[in-house]
Amino acid sequence: MIDWRSARVAWQVLALSQLREQPLRVLATVLAIALGVALGAAVYLINAAALTQFDQATRRLIGEADIVIRGPASGFDQSVFVALARESAVSVASPVLELRLALAPANRPALPLLALDPFRAAALQPELVSALGAHITALFAHDAIVLSRAAADTLGLRRSDLLSINVGGAVKSLRVIDILPGDAYPEPLGIMDIAAAQWTLERLGRINRVDLRLRPGSDPRLVRARLNQWLPAGVFAVTPQIERGRASSASRAYRVNLDMLALVALLTGGFLVFSTQWLSVLRRRVALGLLRCLGVTRAQLRLALLAETLASGALGSALGVELGALIAMLTLRYLGADLGNRQFAAIAATLAVHPVPLLGFALIGTAAAGAGGALPAWQAARRSPALALKAGDAELDLNRLVTTAPGLALLAAGALLAWLPAIGGLPLPGYVSIAALLLGSVLLVPALTRRLIGALPRTGQVVLDTGFAQLQGSLSSSTVSLASMIVSFSLMVAMAIMVHSFRDSFELWLAKLLPADLQLRCSLGSDTCALSAAEQSRIAALAGVARAEFRRVQPIFLQADHAPVTLIARDLPAERAADTLPLLREAREPGAAALPPVWISEAVQDLYGYQPGQSLALPLAGRAQSFFIAGVWRDYVHAGGALVIRRQDYLAATGDGSANEGSLWREPHTSIAAIEAAIRAALAPNDALELISSPELRERSLLAFDQAFLITYALEAIAVLIGLVGVSVAASSTALARRAQFGMLRHLGMLRRQVLWMFASEGIALSALAVLYGLLLGALLSLILVYVINRQSFNWSIDLSVPWLQLASLSAALIIASAITALWSGRAAMSQDPIRAVREDW
Amino acid sequence: MRQVLRLEALSKRYRAGAAPVLDGLQLQLNDGEFLAIMGESGAGKSTLLNIIAGLERPDSGHVLLDGIDLRTLDDDALTRLRRARVGFVFQAFHILPYLTVLQNVALPLDLLGIARAEREPRARQWLERCGIGALWHSYPRELSGGELQRIAIARALVHEPALLLADEPTGNLDAATAGQILRVLREQLQTSAASAILITHSRAAAQTADRIARLQDGRLTPEVP
What we know:
The structure holds two protein chains of two kinds.
Chain A: H1 4-21, H2 23-62, E1 67-70, E2 76-77, H3 79-85, E3 90-103, E4 111-116, H4 118-124, H5 126-132, E5 144-147, H6 149-155, E6 162-167, E7 170-179, E8 190-193, H7 194-200, E9 206-207, E10 209-214, H8 220-230, E11 236-238, H9 240-283, H10 285-294, H11 298-334, H12 355-382, H13 385-388, H14 405-417, H15 428-454, H16 462-473, H17 475-513, E12 518-522, H18 533-540, E13 545-556, E14 565-570, H19 577-580, E15 583-586, E16 597-601, H20 602-608, E17 615-620, E18 623-633, E19 642-646, H21 647-654, E20 661-666, H22 672-683, E21 689-693, H23 694-708, H24 710-737, H25 739-748, H26 752-794, H27 804-829, H28 834-839
Chain B: E1 3-12, E2 22-30, E3 34-38, H1 45-52, E4 60-65, E5 68-69, H2 75-85, E6 86-89, H3 101-111, H4 116-129, H5 145-157, E7 163-167, H6 175-192, E8 195-200, H7 203-206, E9 211-216, E10 219-223
Parallel strand pairs in B: 3-8, 3-9, 6-7, 7-8
Antiparallel strand pairs in B: 1-2, 1-4, 4-5, 9-10
């Protein structure tokens, strides 16, 4: 049974010593935990806000439907709705045309439009329809539209204003008849009557969604299965859960990766606590020995030391939670909720702070600090007080950790785990692999330290040799300092290699896919704007245009429970696909002559299991058309997957010769500005095209890439900071503990600067070892990040590319920082005269 | 007369195959007795002290402190016994620099659970007895070696232990200060009625004790004071 009172006395004595003598070190550990908790809490709060927003929006859209009939944006014949309404199990059937409106001018994002039958929809989306209020009959006008508050604010429109949209190349005006209250729907949205929308948007007889409520007693699973048997190709009966889950499942890997990054930051902070506490216990060994002599038991001492780190952890966690909430609030207000993941953009996401999850983060932070302090507390309590009180004995026993078996076993386990597939679409074995490799490498540090430091050469220079001898004689503290530097540096190296590899691959990919001078597109993401065949011919014939290529891009559904796949129909000679697409694999054998080729992206390969050489049925114009999978290409844009087919095959299957994207090559000596002006003049008054030069598009894309990695860059910075703090703490703790030794060396005649350089040489030797080991370990971890985590999370591959200059700079920075902190700490430790230094007990 | 300490056939060696540091050592210490142990460096004097205090375990033999066989106790029980019955004075003083003189002296009482209202007056009383009552609010860094050792003596006796163990208490002091410290130690032992064992190289220091023994070849042999 623990005598709590004596434990409390011991804790008070020890805590007092820490606060009085090492306040900056206490602050460093508190801040290290705070940073890790803040990052985790901020990422969680921002993602939660965005998810809540999406969920609320989708619930409003789907309402109380039991089944949703979902088709491609191009729609299906509304006779399907009639057949559905006649189904015996169906109580209410509500037809919907759900599109993304191209706005004019084209430099604004497309506006989501929900066109519905208000009377039928009233039963299924009551909140949305009731918000229409008295304007429900005014909605029947062919040009009437109701906007959500978010849409009105974004577009700067008020009631009775006109909204210009682009429909198939012509500009039309819609009249804003009402603006919904802010709480009716949180995202930008336009609502029209379905018949008015079909007329105005030239979609007569077409719908793309039907919401169904079933009669009581009907089994939705059975009804879905029956419906899916006769629905046209590319049209599926899905559950509302699948609809609601699309946003969260599409972003799940991204969110989990961010959470893992935050966890890494926290663990790095926990490791700093470990190294700081280890050195602190070394420094206070005599006090600890004295307390044991005076009657503090091992358990009480262990508890007192643990309480120290738990207190720092609790304080850091409390600070971190506040800081995380502040970061989340500022990020949502000024940067948005997507954290760089554009598919996850939620404009009006609001911060909701619930105490329970934040308490969870606080507990995790405290536990990380406690875990960091556990080994030093255990070791200190084990130590013989008689030895601790003996002068000159300053080493905690790390002999048990010199064995290499556990470290090697963890490395082997980590290597094996890296080969395992994802679980539930998440690279969980990959995360565990990284943890095992990191921990295994850290456990090998004592043995490594013993070998490497033991092998430091005698140089014949008294300053260097004394410094190296000190390192060899203080393996325990050297090991801890080394391990601390290795952990933070290797994480830094791993992330730097991963991000550089990704950026490199992305840049090369952009260069391959954007060879033309000018890109044009009809209001990105819209469903209503397209260039007719005549317009395409007019553009291609313009003076200054050497070559023009047009594409039809649209989302289609391959399976009910997957996000839509992007179909890209483009001019593409099959035998020269590798010249145009960043192909990774091609089918070994040519396909059956009758089947047209399709090239699938890596995401389609991973998510659907298709392979080159197989056939694939694509739903085009309501019919399943068979294609031959000719190859796999790299795609960094379409997370749900993308398919490329030849335009002539698309035209043959659908009769649709329109295009919504294009690439132009200019004649020599023709400026891009001149071509842009010519295009606008040729298509006037159609102002639906967005024109951008390829270099500018590449630049924008790379900027978006860098924004997406803001969190990763933040984590790199935190790892650097914690690493440097660890170096500084180790140097100053060691310097303080060796004041008497420095004084003795000065008595023997060593100059002050010689003592300083001796100390600095120790720091440089240790940091050089840390850099070498950290580079190797970081490179190993980066392989897992590049080939396992990244591939399994996002279903695309990247090529390894090492940022040699950046790594060299980081390495030099760490070594220089070690030297500087050693010099600074040494100066501080020698600030008192040598006579007093050798007199001191402590 | 009450026997405070009895050592029976105590043996200890540090490495297998090496000569024993303690070899069948016998010792008896009665209530209020003051014993000085002399010996050359490396003879095992500190080892003997550590075994008596329960900080180390002998290879064989028995240590009975106030009739309690230390071999029957686990580490926690040894620690509690030490807390209540033993006081220490070290050569290097080992006064905690971030506590005041009063807090340092009161620390053993605090560990025993004695309330502040009682422990501080007791601590001040002992500081007065050791001649440094005026320094109760000072910090150790402001004090001389002699003053620090007086604090250590006060701390060692404040909880009225049965046994005081002093390991070279005058080793870091000049001759004059050492003499003062030994006088203070002798006086306070008489006041507290504690028994004491003093480890020393110094014949002069040893002669302040009631009896002297020499540790040689692992055993104690009496010497004439």
